[in-house]
Amino acid sequence: MRFCNTTCAEGTVNNSPLPCPACGENLTNHIGRLRINSGIIRLTDPGNIYECPICGLLFRRPYLSPLDLAKNYGELPAILWNYSEPRTDFNLAASVIRKMLPSGSILDVGCFRGDFLAMLPANYQKFGIEHSESARQVARQRGITLIGELIEEIESERLGFHAITLLDVIEHLPYPFVSLQRLLTLLLPGGTLILSTGNTDVLPWRLMRRDYYYYFSEHVSFFNPRWFRWVANQLNLNLVLLKRFSHFGGSSFERWEQFAKCLAFWTVEHVHKYPLLQNLMCSIYPFNKVSQWSLPPMTHLWRDHILVVLKSGS
């Protein structure tokens, strides 16, 4: 029984507080050792999840060095992340841009092939930051001007944008607050910052904690509305919009069915201190199904993502 018995141990970890990579406070709480190690980046150690009680950020440590991280993203093939139709956050972000900015310059951070920028009309000037060389080639063919491979290498003195987008990108950044500070130097006065990412406040995530499906190996930082309100306060930005959404469709029945599986998993996990009770539970339906799962259940039909719109002062 994979999850009934063998995965309850935390493993040997350092429970000493780590400094938060966003606010720097040394009061972080250790949530637990990760057991999910799937994704596009190969990690020898999936690491541990920590939570900052000051700003609300969740983050993974240990993680790859900047050099190793750059190498992994630089080698990603352009055929990765193909979509049969525009993503939900692409549609939402495009709608915000068309409403708030009839024309102007748009910088898409982590633009990959330029799928999002290609959705925008020709009256926008389209710029991108992307590290994958094969994806950069496709973006260039689409008429997108690439200004660099990494946020840190861009010279802000020479550039200014009316809007900057990070769509399912900020969760890949080990030091998200520093990255946003840097990007703000590229934003024109009155400019708009648009982000999409996972939302740790959604009910299944709050239940599952360290076992939420979203901890793919390429994800290192995890956010919620509280963190973005903290960012808005720290960087003197106006929080214009927080919109919850899902990348996938599904009925209410399917969403609650997913949650029921999570609840069964959580229940079995939290009786591991009582082996007799746990073994009894694992012999009856639906808890007997938990022992057959190789991974914790997914709840991707829930609205576990948020679109965030931040606006700078004029």
What is the helical fraction, as a range of percent? 25-40%
Output the number of helix runs. 10
* Number of strand elements: 11
Give a quick account of the main beta sheet: strands, pairing sense, barrel closure.
Answer: 7 strands, mixed
Strand content: 15-25%
Rg, nearest Å: 21 Å
Whole-number mean pLDDT: 90
Secondary-structure element string:
EEEHHEHEHEEHEHEHEHHHE
Residue windows where pLDDT falls under 50 for at least 5 positions: 1-13
How would you sum up the global shape?
Answer: globular
Could you walk me through the main structural features you see in this protein, from its secondary elements to its overall organization?
Helices cover 29% and strands 21% of the residues. By secondary structure, the chain is an alpha/beta fold. It is globular, with a radius of gyration of 21 Å. The protein has a seven-stranded mixed sheet, with helices on both faces. Residues 1-13 have low confidence and may be disordered. The chain contains ten helices and eleven strands.
